Every structure is written in structure tokens, then in C-alpha cells.
């Protein structure tokens, strides 16, 4: 059996389960920490079945992802010293200080972009804690970015159904990357002009 067919059956199992909302919340939670498969692929078939509204599914996925991002932030924040020792991180060159300065200046927008685009946002969830990025702006930025992505995919499932949504997932991924790049360029240009 190939891996694609196995994953497809698993996605359908989640969508058809009577615990589907809990599973979407749980998948979104662990995806923010370590899980490699984005919840988007589960959201579309779940909403297409019309058991739940796109708003319910988007909200559960966004809350689950934000709670997972909060845990990842906490791990980065409270266990930085342990990770730094294991990974042999030191700031002898001042690089972490420079990165922290950049993060202080652009961190909010970087977190929004990372959460919205399909870029693995685990670097930003743990990194925000490592760099002691302020918790409230981090949570707001992450909720905006990930919430927009979860609601977008839930809406697509509602509007276009399973068949069209499956065909358009690749296009949507490229669109979210494109929107993220455009926003990043606008932020960069804005800082050059100010």
C-alpha cells in the first residue's frame, strides 16, 4: 500500500469520525508543535461533509493551533537553556542578539506570515519563546495568521466541496505563499521608506 493512499484513508477517517471536531482541534494543536501534516487537508473534507459549519471547523482549528503554539512558545521560553546546551548555542558572536533585535522590530509580522503561509511555523513558535518575544503580541499575531488560514480552508470546503477543493489545494498553497511574499515585500519596503 502506498503512503498517499494510507494518508487519504486517515484523512477520511478523521472527517467521518463522530469526534471530528475534537480530532481537528487536536491535529491543529500538535501541528503547531511537531506534526508534519497541516490541518488544512483535514479541514476541507470535514466541512465538505456538511456535518459542521465552516465557522465551527475554522474556529476549532484556530483555537487548537493557537493553544499548541502557546505550548511551543512556553517550551522555547522556559527550556531555552537546556536546548542551547544540547544544540551548543552560544552568543559569543552576538548573532542571537542581532536576530533578537530584528525579531523585536519585525517579529509580529514574521509570526503572522509564518502562521498564515504553509512554511513550517514551528521555528517561529519555539523561536518566539527562545527569543523572549512578548507573549501577548505573539499570541495575537499567531491567532491572526493561523486563524486566517484555518478559516480560509474551511470556507473553501464550504463553497466548493471536496472534489473541487482537492484539486485546488495546490493552487491555494501557492496563493498563500504568494500573499505572504507580497506582504513581506510591502513590510520591507515600508521599513526602507521610513
Q: Tell me the distance between the termini.
A: 57 Å
Global structural class: mainly alpha
What letter string, H or E per element, gives the SSE order?
HHHHHHHH
SS elements, strand count: 0
Tell me about this structure.
With 194 residues, the chain is mainly α. 81% of the residues lie in helices and 0% in strands. It is built from eight helices and no strands. It has helices at residues 3-16, 20-31, 40-48, 54-78, 80-87, 95-116, 122-130, 135-193. It starts with a helix and ends with a helix. The mean pLDDT is 79.
List keywords for this structure.
mainly alpha; 194 residues
Itemize the secondary structure elements and their pairings.
Blueprint: H1 3-16, H2 20-31, H3 40-48, H4 54-78, H5 80-87, H6 95-116, H7 122-130, H8 135-193
Entry summary:
The protein is mainly alpha-helical. It has helices at 3-16, 20-31, 40-48, 54-78, 80-87, 95-116, 122-130, 135-193. The model has no long low-confidence stretch (mean pLDDT 79).
Amino acid at each position: 500500500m502506498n503512503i498517499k493512499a494510507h494518508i487519504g484513508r486517515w484523512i477520511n477517517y478523521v472527517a467521518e469520525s463522530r469526534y471530528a471536531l475534537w480530532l481537528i482541534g487536536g491535529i491543529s494543536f500538535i501541528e503547531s508543535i511537531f506534526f508534519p501534516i497541516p490541518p488544512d487537508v483535514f479541514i476541507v473534507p470535514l466541512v465538505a461533509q456538511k456535518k459542521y459549519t465552516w465557522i465551527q471547523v475554522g474556529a476549532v482549528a484556530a483555537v487548537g493551533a493557537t493553544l499548541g503554539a502557546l505550548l511551543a512558545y512556553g517550551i522555547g521560553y522556559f527550556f531555552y537553556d537546556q536546548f542551547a546546551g544540547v544544540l551548543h548555542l552560544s552568543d559569543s558572536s552576538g548573532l542571537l542578539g542581532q536576530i533578537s533585535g530584528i525579531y523585536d522590530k519585525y517579529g509580529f509580522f514574521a509570526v503572522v506570515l509564518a502562521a498564515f503561509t504553509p512554511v513550517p511555523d514551528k521555528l517561529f513558535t519555539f523561536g518566539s519563546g527562545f527569543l523572549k518575544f512578548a507573549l501577548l503580541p505573539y499570541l495575537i499575531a499567531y491567532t491572526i495568521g493561523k486563524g486566517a488560514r484555518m478559516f480560509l480552508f474551511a470556507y473553501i470546503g464550504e463553497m466548493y466541496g471536496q472534489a473541487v477543493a482537492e484539486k485546488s489545494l495546490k493552487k491555494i498553497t501557492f496563493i498563500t505563499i504568494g500573499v505572504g511574499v507580497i506582504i513581506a515585500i510591502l513590510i520591507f519596503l515600508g521599513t526602507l521608506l521610513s
